[in-house]
Design a protein that fits this description.
Blueprint: H1 8-48, H2 53-103, H3 106-110, H4 112-147, H5 150-194, H6 198-204, H7 207-252, H8 254-259, H9 264-303, E1 328-335, E2 345-352, E3 357-361, H10 368-375, E4 383-388, E5 391-392, E6 402-405, E7 414-415, H11 416-420, H12 430-440, H13 443-449, E8 455-456, H14 463-476, E9 481-485, H15 493-504, E10 510-514, H16 518-523, E11 526-531, E12 534-538, H17 540-546, H18 548-554
Parallel strand pairs: 3-10, 3-11, 6-9, 9-10
Antiparallel strand pairs: 1-2, 1-4, 4-5, 7-8, 11-12
Helix pairs in contact: 1-2, 1-4, 1-9, 2-4, 4-5, 4-9, 5-7, 5-9, 7-9, 12-14, 17-18
């Protein structure tokens, strides 16, 4: 149940094995490329042009078989690329979350999900196009050399020249891509401040000054876009030199090549190598590296932590958390409600990694709420140790690292914004508050009440509405560990699913749910089944095979699990 830490040597070994697998499956793609032009040349020279139709058909069949084998290799490559880039994403997420929680870096937390996913997807795309070009080029150039070495003299120089020209554009293109993104974000921020206050701008007679300020932002973005477009023209020129010029040179040099021993089949094979292999691979490389490469550079630069100039701030976003520690660990935990009582938990070991999503299920009264109370520090175990983000659960540093939402939701008299910001040291910005309400599903109630500043009367709210307010309050909390103890039992299944999915997707968040419905367990990545002192742990499919109690809980007649 314990998450393994990132050890540099182990990570390098794992990546080394992944790279070997990636190269082995890519060899099939290189073989397909080699066979395409070579089989076509042999089909013409040894087959159709020599009057031997069966031989020509055999070679064409071999080329078709090579395409099928190459397609299979490409399919396997996708899985290997996922094994390569997912650890990189995990390390980015871990670093950004650690900085956001430790230093109360709100910008890091707000941009976590989008930027980490962009980095992961972009890196995967770059690996695919770079790998494809390398192995396709090797297969095509080997085929040209096998057919007739003079063909390399025609194709090789312009290909290398195009690659060199493209490589020279990468760094300037990345700088201009970043400048464009900065200008675009500045314009969006300016408009975000101006548009909601247009009536006040008009009333104050400040139209000309505001128009001038916005105009400067628009002009800056326009200049950045033009600079980016100019370097994109150079990229198109590199593609023309490296991918299309070899085709023109082959056609222009065809008479000379034929006079110097190059067969018609070899010439046709060379044209196939250029048009069907080298040109598409170069196009993918230029567009992939030229756009995605610059994008990845910008994102990684923004995800990179700033240089440390002193101790991390305290009192703003809670105490620092150990970035390498799991979100919640229970080690040999035993708990009973009295010295003569049967233990509710007996030697329980549990480890939930950062970003985990655990559902706790079991019969009513078995100890699920006891487990969350222990994890929240409300109860003290008789034996064992409980840690939250590396800190003792009942220690002062762990208090702000977890938030418990019980079945009975507590709502106070006051405004809705005051209720939602109870767990924050400062007032919650309205944009963040509205985004949280939308994520959890509070927006309809918020609009019906009259907005964030509307007064709240707890007595007139339904139990489900009070739960939505409590859930949104916990969502806005800086605590990375959220403990939902039947906190959605008064919501309908769709509202419950939306709230749980919001917490599961919360940047840097870890979720533990005491499940009221079995669908909560299906949504979780891991499930803890409690059956007295015995427990079972695994995912939905594993427990269906191995745990009789879980099978009973999943049965249609037992949809509620408490």
């Amino acid at each position: 149940m314990r998450a393994r830490g990132w050890e540099p040597r182990g990570l390098l070994r794992v990546r080394g094995r992944v790279l070997v697998r990636l190269a082995l499956w890519s060899v099939l793609e290189a073989g397909q490329t080699f066979l395409l032009g070579y089989a076509l040349a042999r089909a013409l020279d040894a087959g159709f042009l020599a009057g031997d139709v069966p031989t020509g058909l055999v070679w064409l069949t071999a080329a078709g078989g090579g395409v099928a084998v190459g397609a299979y290799g490409t399919r396997r490559v996708y899985g290997v690329v996922a094994d390569l880039v997912e650890p990189v994403r995990d390390r980015l997420v871990a670093g950004v979350v650690a900085r956001g929680v430790r230093d109360a870096d709100r910008s890091a937390l707000s941009g976590l999900t989008q930027q980490a996913e962009i980095a992961r997807d972009t890196l995967a795309g770059l690996v695919m196009v770079s790998r494809s070009f390398v192995f396709t080029a090797v297969g095509a150039l080997a085929g040209l050399c096998t057919l007739a070495p003079p063909l390399l003299l025609v194709v090789g120089p312009p290909l290398l020249a195009g690659l060199g020209l493209f490589a020279a554009t990468l760094r300037p293109l990345a700088r201009r891509q970043e400048a464009f993104l900065v200008a675009d974000e500045a314009l969006a921020a300016e408009l975000g401040e101006v548009c909601p206050g247009l009536r006040d701008v008009t009333a104050a007679g400040a139209e000309e000054r505001i128009a001038a300020d916005v105009g400067r932002r628009v002009d800056a973005e326009y200049r950045a876009a033009r600079a980016l477009a100019r370097w994109s023209v150079v990229r198109v020129a590199a593609l023309a030199v490296g991918g299309q010029l070899p085709l023109v040179l082959l056609l222009a040099a065809a008479p000379w090549l034929l006079r110097h021993g190059v067969t018609p089949g070899a010439l046709v094979g060379a044209l196939a190598y250029v048009t069907q292999s080298l040109l598409p691979a170069l196009q993918n490389l230029v567009h992939g590296l030229g756009t995605s490469g610059a994008r990845l550079t910008v994102v990684l630069r923004r995800l990179r932590p700033p240089p440390e100039s002193g101790p991390p701030p305290t009192g703003t976003g809670g105490p620092p958390a150990d970035p390498g520690a799991p979100a919640l660990t229970l080690t040999a935990v035993t708990f009973a409600y009295g010295p003569a009582s049967t233990p509710v938990l007996d030697g329980l070991d549990l480890c939930i990694p950062r970003g985990g999503h655990l559902a706790v299920v079991g019969p009513s009264g078995i100890g699920k709420s006891t487990l969350t109370a222990l994890a929240a520090g409300l109860l003290e175990p008789a034996h064992g140790e409980i840690r939250v983000c590396g800190h003792p659960v009942r220690g002062p540093r762990a208090v702000a690292l977890r938030v418990l939402i019980p079945q009975e939701a507590y709502v106070t008299t006051g405004t809705l914004a005051e209720n939602l910001g109870l767990l924050r040291p400062d007032p919650v910005p309205e944009r963040e508050l509205l985004a949280a309400a939308e994520a959890v599903g509070l927006t309809p109630l918020l609009e019906r009440l009259g907005g964030p500043d509307a007064p709240v009367r707890p007595a007139v709210l339904s139990a489900g509405e009070r739960q939505l307010i409590a859930l949104t309050r916990a969502y806005l909390s800086p605590a990375p560990l959220a403990l939902l103890d039947e906190a959605t039992c008064h919501l309908d299944p769709a509202a419950e699913a939306r709230a749980e999915q919001a917490f599961a997707a919360r940047p840097g968040g870890t979720l533990v749910v005491v499940a009221h419905r079995i669908d909560s367990a299906r949504r979780a990545r891991r499930i803890l089944v409690m059956d007295g002192p015995r427990t079972a742990y695994g995912n939905h499919e594993e427990l269906l095979r191995t745990c009789a109690l879980y099978q009973d809980l999943v049965a249609p007649s037992r949809s509620p699990v408490t």
